[in-house]
Amino acid sequence: MSTAAQSGDPAGPTVSVPSIPEEQIVAICETYANDRHRMLDILREVQDRFRWISPKVMETVARQTGLSRIEVEGVASFYSFLSQTPKGRVTIRLCDDIVDRFAGLAEVAGIFEQELGIGMGETSGDGAFSLEYTPCIGLCDQAPAAMVNDVVVTSLTPERARQWAQALKAGTPPEEIVSERFSELTPHARATEQVENNIRHAGAVLLGPVPDSAGLKKALDMAPAQIIDTIEASGLRGCGGAGFTTGRKWRFAASEPAEKRYVLCNADEGEPGTFKDRVLLTERPHLLVEGMTIAARAVGAREGIIYLRGEYVYLRELIEEVLADRRARGLLGANILGIDGFDFDLRVQMGAGAYICGEEGALISSCEGLPGEPKTRPPFPVNRGYLGFPTVVNNVETFCHAARILDRGAQWFFDMGEEGSHGTKLFSVSGDCLNPGIYELPYGLEVRELLEMVGGEDAAAVQVGGPSGTMIARDSFHRRLTFDDLATGGAVIVFSGERNVLEIVEYYMSFFVHESCGYCTPCRVGNVFLQKAIGKFRKGLANPEDIDYLKDLSGTIIETSRCGLGMTSPNPILTTLENFPLVYSAMVKPSKDRIRATFDIQSAIEGARKLAKRRSYIYDRDFSK
Amino acid sequence: MAEPRKARIATTSLAGCFGCHMAILDIDERLIELMKLVEIDRSPLTDIKRFTQRCDIGIIEGGCCNEENVHVLRDFRRNCDVLIAIGQCAIMGGLPVMRNAIMHSDAPLRECLEEAYITGRYIRNTTHDIPNDPALPLLLDEVYPCSEVVEIDYQIPGCAPTGDVIYETLTSLLAGKFHGFDRMHIKFD
Amino acid sequence: MSDQDITFTIDGVEITAKPGQTIMEAADEAGIYIPRLCDHEGLRHQGGCRVCTVKANGRSVAACTQPAAAGIAVENENTHVNKMRRDLVEMLFHEGNHLCPICEASGNCELQAMAYRLEMVDPTRFPYLEPCRAVDASHPDIALDTNRCISCGRCIRASKDVDGKGVFGYVGRGIHRRVAVNGEDLAHTDADAADHAMSDEVCPVGCIIRKRVGFVTPIGEREFDKGLIGYEIEGKRRG
Prior knowledge:
Chain A is α/β, with parallel strands linked by helices. Chain A contains 26 helices and 17 strands. Chain A has a six-stranded mixed beta sheet. Chain C folds into two domains: 6-76, Ubiquitin-like (UB roll) (Roll), CATH 3.10.20.740; 85-225, Alpha-Beta Plaits. Chain C has five helices and nine strands. The mean pLDDT of chain C is 96. Classes of the chains: A alpha/beta, B alpha/beta, C alpha+beta. At the A-C interface, helix 4, helix 20, helix 21 and helix 22 of A face helix 2, strand 7 and strand 8 of C.
């Protein structure tokens, strides 16, 4: 992970690229009505077509949208999938999650480097290929995985990597490597051709049989306030991780006086190890849109947005097809199901590689065409959200649940799970277990029970809720998967005894450093310091007092950060310090005679020895050599 | 009753400019008062090169930019009960630490020396060589604040700290009454 | 005090606020100084540096953006809050290259003054990030050394909202986020030395440097040699 040390300007273009005709940029802007709020769409399209956002492009886009170049650059430089240097015609992004690393990523990366003749982070001179790492792309159950332009490749072995690289070198479009009949397949078949669903346990609510539009039809017989009452009575809480009561959120948005309201779906599933929304988007897209439509009915919204993470671009056409289908069937658009004045339609907003956009304020910023920075709270999105209007932002799973609750009733849902954590939850299980995949289970299971179900009895550590959650050791496997004990947006990552806990922690800290938006000091800078401190522990260069330092610095970051990212980013450290204390204490080097054993004079003078071509009078025994 | 023994003080300048030592002399006529309380062992002020006995206080000016600095600093840590880092160079590397920020290349030390002795715009070096006398201590890969090499007990900030601040700090430390600085007297320049 | 005014306490002192005022605005009027770096009079609030963190009913909030609310108990000056602020100030020192002895802003620098106020004098535990960005001296009257930038964004807001220009903006993300100019370099923007954004009150550190006026006021006779940062606001109370 790079830090400020390497934060100079990006290198200029090193590969030959065709010039970008200005009129085409103008045309792209006009497709979006020169609307600055569609900046992310505009820049994504420029990136897709011309493979970079050149300074000239930024000027043109700025002129068309009435912004300044620096404002466009602010957006272009924020998102990982937008580039200010030319990328290859095919960009291969290898998923660099810790699960992928443990599943053989290094070997796979080596094969791509060898076959394509470029290193990670490089673009080939002929402009054919770019090779880079990207954080978790939501395919931990079939790691190592990669994105190749807009398709994904899973379960990469060295052989499979070589096949892909060679086919790409031969000029085969990535889609055709997925399937020779790719163009003939339905969007759903295309998705499942690329990615296994791995549904291991279907529960009663989401993954079992789901009747078409049953919830929506019942909702239409109810007054908006009744819909909200039903959702509130069901006990449904947000499934993205934070667990806010859904009914209350809807009530707040509905009661805020406003001429417009919005319903936004957070499909920016970015927490490493989480991939449940991927499966819902593949298998239950109608249910999602149904849930959003019900929410729109409940709060009085006429427009909505599905914010789909850039990594799930392969699901975009599937979702677009669902939207088109529903419009055709009168389930979306004007006068839904013949109800006069019930209008609701939505668009898909593609993300572009930024975990922070899963934070609801940042998601709204991103939908508004801004860098994905969280917004100052208050005002809260339910009062002033998207474009300043009351906005409901819910997770994919939450909307799906809502649709089912309307169909089957609040009590049915309330009776599942336990007090405070009602209904079922999708768990995405990955790592060192026999059956990684999706498990829909009622809340309240013990971690141990889940481990038995997934074939992960040998686990030495389980990361519940992804990096911003909790890492527990064997002695805590009796803890339960509920909001009140081990809360999770769905991620359960299993680690066997062979795994190095500090390696996992260091990876997670590098993830947060990469994904911090940089708006506030503690998260922008503090996380870099935490990452460096863990690096010292791994190298055996930490002082005993560095354990307190880690706790202390973590405390400041948690207490002073502006949004949830910084408030949870020290969790990998804090939870492992608590549950795996020996991992840390075994690595510290106490001072001797108050001289720091962590300062290594030998490595500090090694460069000078070579440069001066002589040895040290002080620190080399035989300095004449 | 025997007179209480005077506190023994040692001082040194590592990668510094001796400005902090000048500041010690800026205590002026109060030096006479101070000398009633202390005796000075190893120090450039006395020209004593080695510790003659264990000291109560070691005062360090300058950070560590070469192996000799590390050696001396460790020697001070071994031979002094309390170490005080005095001035910005000892505290955070000071001016010499500027080289760290320009050293993000693959061969940082070489580039730094080449710029300083050969390629720099205003260099007049008739030998076109980088000095490499065997008597020169080897440079460290970067400049380190003293606290990274040994444990430091107190810091007196400033570039240089004023004679007043040094005097106040030393006398209150010796009296066992040091409770931090007057905030109006904290200066980093 | 009108009917709509609300009252709350800061460190036990009762304060009156007008509806819509932030905790900091109300505190300023009452002569209670809450440390801040990214906030500046006459500019929109940003809530980015977090140095103004206070505890409101036990919960950490940024005083510059948090609306005052009736009856809340705000903790401003206590050991814990000031320790966190000191950490934040130290983070900013270590994120950039802040070599006070050679910086023209020394003595007028709010970052440095905040370190004095918060007594940042103990041996550090933070690493130095030591950025190495080119100094932009292209403009005839102004130089930019972004190695000293603390990302407060005051110049961005001053240029956009006060000067109506938009010379500056943020680019990048995370630790790479920084202030950049609206053009190839500063000379290729409409920056002018007379802009509010370029005035010595807007940049709290030595990042925006006006040429040819360096060291006109000698070290030792500068803004924060007169008093601790915040003395003007605190003076209101005593006066």
